[in-house]
Design a protein that fits this description.
single chain, mainly alpha, about 0% strand
């Protein structure tokens, strides 16, 4: 028995050292190590099995290596090997492990798992949403490792906010996570803010269809109960948990402030969220909300951005907003010079869109060669 125990201890120690060695290499030569392990296809299910090992040091080393690999992996291999048992194991680690790095890595694995319906439903069934919210709240304003954990937790939340599945969105909103997300726009890391804005944008795309129609008064006007006040954008009765309304969540101001961030990824994600308020028939009312939040001058400022994504989004937004006379007269003059410059130096689509906006501002004729 003593010999067997000694052999097992030696094997565990050897495996731990090997896993740590691979993890260290992953940090330096990520793509090469990932390719090496995936070429040895049987190593993937073995690695996942080690994530379930009862030896904490061995398990933690395996979880760390798996977290290094999963971000840039072949999704087909992950989907073939990650099952509900694996999901339950990862969540159990997050809930109960005393090793903060292991918890961080386990949350990182969940963050980067492929966004398919099976995996998301397994996570939902295993209670992932409450665990995610708990760690988001626990990590606010704490040390760097805790803040990294919040980044991964919000990344894990994103899959539950997709507008293609209202039930997942409702399950996420019912945890009370939306007000927490809004707070993180003020004090989160750059990556946290970007992922938060992505979540809020996806929530907001469902708000119009979830906004409850305002009931009509019945009977004599003076004796009937007062009607609910409708949302000025969604034209119905909104709430944070039932329709994920950005106005009800007081998110518009926070999103507007993040437009001042230096990171283009944060700015682009926040702009995406704000522009959900002017989609379709909500252009007039949504533009008023953006104007009241002083967001439109910031959108105009992006006309000078070196980020192609920000430039394209700002042009598309202003092309719609400047169809409205009120906003064209209020903000058009401040955008005019930048738009003229873009017609001179921009590529084909940028030149064409800039010219279209200048036509709204009566600066260019719609027959101009800039449209071609």
């Amino acid at each position: 028995m003593c010999i067997n125990t000694a052999v097992m201890s030696f094997l565990h120690l050897f495996l731990i050292q090997m896993l740590r060695l691979f993890s260290s290499f992953c940090c330096i030569h990520h793509n090469r190590i990932t390719l090496l392990i995936y070429e040895q296809y049987p190593a993937v299910p073995k690695l996942i099995q080690l994530c379930e090992n009862e030896n904490q040091n061995l398990r933690a080393s395996a979880v760390r290596l798996f977290s290094c690999l999963v971000e840039n992996c072949d999704e087909a291999i992950i989907q073939e090997n990650v099952n509900q048992k694996c999901i339950n194991t990862l969540l159990r680690i997050i809930k109960s492990s005393s090793d903060e790095e292991e918890v961080l890595c386990a949350m990182g694995i969940i963050c980067y798992l492929p966004e398919n319906d099976h995996i998301t439903q397994w996570l939902l069934d295993a209670g992932a949403l409450q665990i995610i919210k708990h760690h988001v709240e626990l990590g606010k304003g704490r040390d760097r490792q805790r803040r990294n954990l919040v980044e991964n937790a919000i990344g894990a939340l994103v899959r539950f906010t997709v507008p293609t599945n209202l039930e997942w969105q409702k399950s996420a909103a019912e945890t009370g996570i939306i007000p927490v997300l809004v707070q993180l726009l003020e004090n989160g890391t750059t990556l946290t803010k970007q992922r938060v804005a992505q979540c809020l944008a996806q929530f907001s795309r469902s708000s119009f269809r979830l906004s409850r129609p305002i009931p009509k008064r019945k009977g004599l006007w003076c004796f009937s109960a007062p009607t609910d006040i409708g949302c000025m954008v969604h034209e119905g009765v909104c709430s944070v948990k039932s329709s994920f309304c950005l106005l009800e969540a007081n998110a518009v101001g926070s999103l507007t402030r993040t437009l001042n961030e230096s990171d283009p990824g944060v700015c682009e994600a926040s702009l995406d969220a704000l522009l959900t308020l002017v989609e379709g028939e909500r252009l007039q009312s949504g533009s008023k909300v953006l104007a009241e939040a002083n967001a439109i001058p910031l959108i105009i400022r992006y006309l000078g951005s070196h980020s192609p994504g920000l430039l394209e989004k700002s042009l598309n937004a202003l092309e719609r907003i400047f169809r409205l006379g009120e906003f064209k007269h209020m903000y058009g003059p401040s955008a005019q010079m930048a738009l003229v410059d873009l017609t001179q130096r921009g590529n084909g689509s940028v030149r064409s869109m800039s010219a279209r906006i200048l036509a709204h501002l009566n600066v260019l004729d719609e027959q101009s060669s800039y449209f071609s």
